[in-house]
Amino acid sequence: MTASSQPFGTRLARAIEERGRFCVGIDPHAALLQEWGLGDDVASLERFALTVVEAVAPVVGVVKPQSAFYERFGSRGIAVLERVVAESRAAGALVLMDAKRGDIGSTSQAYADAYLDPSSPLASDALTASPFLGFGSLDPMLDACRRHGAGLFVLALTSNKEGPEVQHARTAARTVAATVLDHLRAANAGALPVGSFGAVVGATIGATEEDLDINGPLLMPGFGAQGGTTADLERILGAAARWALPSSSREVLRAGPDVTALRDAALRGTEAVQGLGA
Ligand SMILES: O=c1ccn([C@@H]2O[C@H](COP(=O)(O)O)[C@@H](O)[C@H]2O)c(=O)[nH]1
Fold it and tell me: How far apart are alpha carbons 152 and 184 in whole angstroms?
């Protein structure tokens, strides 16, 4: 795979324009494998994941495989994840790898090599990252994105109920989340039509006083199975709705294993959020 000649933000803007802003998570939960009448083994993982790719990757702009569900099967699970990445991209979807990586800088460099360097078998269009070792520890990932035309989505206000304990904590007058958003705004300064450095902002967080206008995309998991609705998205986003990417995994995946039913579920999600940012 070669480096993309265009920044991730530019590619994402085109994907949204052509296919809408809804992101489908490819999360092969053990419970979903069972609901689909499959076993809890690698062959079933592969059948599940590639069925979802076949159904949704030709119609949505972004897919988001959750690495943990593949990692639990060891190297053969990772091999399935590699196919999910390759086949989704071949079908025209951008792949946002949800692995939430973050470590000291020298190790962040290795994560950048693994997920953002086009010569890696797991190279994706974008990666989720955790800034809680200090935003600067992610610099190797930001640099790799700039070099290779990839994107990064950094946790800011997550959808889980435990997140506020850390993210609403204050250093001087700023919350931790505000500091993360400030860094992203600086990294995206001047980018057109939008920067490549996004924030993860849960669809479940309720109204927020944080400034979400970072000139970058906002990945919004928690839409659907975790209870987030279109009205919640509107309440949270206000004027920052233009680059929102609402994301749903289980709510779409439960429509399977029928390919048409899965695709219809993805298209319903796309339609539900198409008015955002209008
Ligand atoms: O704040 C966050 C960050 C990431 N996630 C991930 O998104 C999906 C949500 O799946 P659903 O089935 O739609 O609930 C999952 O992969 C999480 O790890 C999140 O939920 N919240």
Answer: 10
